[in-house]
Specification:
The structure is a single chain. This protein is an alpha+beta fold and about 450 residues long. It has helices spanning about 15-20, 60-65, 105-130, 150-160, 170-175, 185-210, 225-230, 250-260, 280-285, 295-305, 325-330, 330-340, 345-355, 360-370, 385-400, 415-425, 430-435, 445-450; strands spanning about 35-45, 70-75, 80-85, 85-90, 95-100, 130-135, 175-180, 215, 215-220, 235-240, 265, 270-275, 310, 310-315, 315-325, 375-380, 380. A hairpin with a 3-residue loop joins strand 14 and strand 15 (about 315-325).
Length: about 450
């Protein structure tokens, strides 16, 4: 089957959808790693979030970023993002500012990219009196006080989300994540990576949990962001247990996504609300309101982007289980997952590590880590002990990759912050809570000073 060649290609059958995913297969020499991270923007004077149109708001921030060579992305006359050399900057529904990094060769390169981006936003922040905070759930804002960004897809999602779960709007408006994108060399390699990544996402959540506050007070969770996903929309979220079935592969994943209800299609630059409709019907030319019309590859890519499982397949794999967090931890996620999944012996050890873990155990662990982080119990042991072994396997993998920076430093150095966590059992959320009860005098506003980028 020949894969569709461009976004305007008409898709005639399920085989076309499968063929598109198969284009992600790459030889190891072409593998790259990408890092995406979101952060909250706020006015340093009074800690208010940035609205879009106000002076010194999101629009001004995006416009000033162009001084660093970024090209604007617009929608309905509004600048809503930026692009440059394979990377992009975009807005989440509540104004969360996201860098989607370019596919790069090493952890050194992706971490340099993140560092360069943060230097740019800090420079503009000094001019506009803007700060940036990395954590999983906004520590002070009420849902009704979050400004809304002018993106058509988000209007459709905001209307649909409350029909499916009671925290979907919280997920959209008050959470931030960091994720890692990885390549695969075959369908079998994709399957193994998907299974490892999915089984280990609760450990990623625990390692990077940084959302212990809600509306100024402790919320009882290590990762409220992770918990919010369990109450968002079960049609398109979660641990997708069929990934561990013997017949899992590209076709089985396509069958799953075909049954995920649609949100929208884009026609003439406008978002058309088809929320709840079936992509299967669309593929047959039977989408209500669009009878006789077949989807394009762009429609399929858009629909793939509305699946929010803990690991998501496009033409690469997205690992999505981690909270956004402090700068000191951002490079740890691509390091630990890159070490596990971009080194064959480490991947084999990781596969053996999770081989006996039952699906129901993984589901239960996901719920436990949202509350207890690395101190959750799994198979009779504190999770940080199991996480310690995962980090050790990754460390060995990064050592074998032997990718050094200009100073001769190994990628293994990016694991240091994780070694500290798996020895002590404390993650960023635990440290934030300790500061809250001691140095901060139970005033969470200090977080904007102590944890801003």
């Amino acid at each position: 089957m020949v894969a569709p060649t461009n976004d305007n290609s008409i898709l005639e059958s399920k085989a076309d959808l499968i063929a598109h995913l198969e284009t992600g297969v790459k030889p190891r020499s072409d593998w790259r790693i990408g890092t995406e991270h979101e952060k909250f923007a706020f006015h340093t004077e009074d800690l208010r979030p940035l609205s879009y149109d106000e002076p010194g708001g999101i629009r001004d921030l995006l416009n000033q970023m162009q001084a660093f060579g970024w090209e604007p992305v617009t929608e309905s006359g509004n600048i809503i993002g930026l692009k440059q050399n394979g990377a992009s900057i975009s807005l989440e529904p509540g104004g969360q500012f996201e860098l989607s990094g370019a596919p790069l060769t090493s952890i050194h390169e992706t971490c340099d990219e993140v560092s360069s981006h943060l230097e740019q936003v800090r420079k503009i922040g000094e001019d506009l009196q803007i700060g940036f905070l990395g954590m999983g759930f906004h520590p002070t804002l009420r849902r009704e006080d979050v400004p809304i960004m002018p993106k058509g897809r988000y209007g459709i999602m905001r209307a649909y989300m409350p029909t499916k779960g009671d925290m979907g709007l919280d997920m959209m408006l008050r959470t931030c994540t960091v994720q890692v994108n990885l390549d695969f060399e075959s369908e079998a390699d994709m399957v193994e990576k998907f299974r490892i990544g999915l089984a280990l996402q609760p450990i990623s959540t625990a390692l990077f949990a940084s959302s212990p506050f809600k509306e100024g007070k402790p919320n009882g969770f290590s990762s409220l962001r992770s918990h919010a996903w369990t109450r968002t929309d079960n049609d398109r979220t979660g641990m997708v247990p069929f990934v561990f079935d013997d017949d899992f592969g590209f076709e089985r994943y396509v069958d799953y996504v075909l049954d995920v209800p649609m949100y929208f299609i884009v026609r003439d630059g406008q978002y058309v609300n088809v929320a709840g409709r079936s992509f299967r019907d669309f593929l047959r030319g039977e989408l209500p309101g669009h009878i006789g019309e077949k989807p394009t590859l762009a429609d399929w890519k858009d629909h793939l982007s509305t699946v929010f499982t803990e690991v998501r397949l496009k033409t690469f794999l997205e690992m999505r289980g981690a909270d956004g967090g402090p700068w000191s931890r951002l490079c740890g996620l691509p390091a630990v997952l890159g070490g596990l999944l971009n080194d064959p012996p480490a991947q084999q050890k990781a596969s053996a590590q999770i081989a006996a873990w039952r699906v129901e155990e993984q589901e239960a662990l996901r719920a436990e880590v949202s509350k207890h982080g690395l101190k959750a119990e799994f198979r009779g042991a504190p999770l940080y002990q199991i996480a310690r072994e995962v980090v050790r396997i990754s460390d060995e993998g990064l050592g074998r990759r032997a990718m050094k920076n200009s100073m001769g430093e190994s990628e293994q150095g990016f694991l240091k912050v994780l070694w500290d966590s798996v020895q002590s059992g404390d993650n960023a959320a635990d440290r934030m809570l300790a500061l809250y009860h001691r140095e901060w005098g139970e005033d969470v506003r200090h977080i904007f000073r102590d944890f801003a980028y």
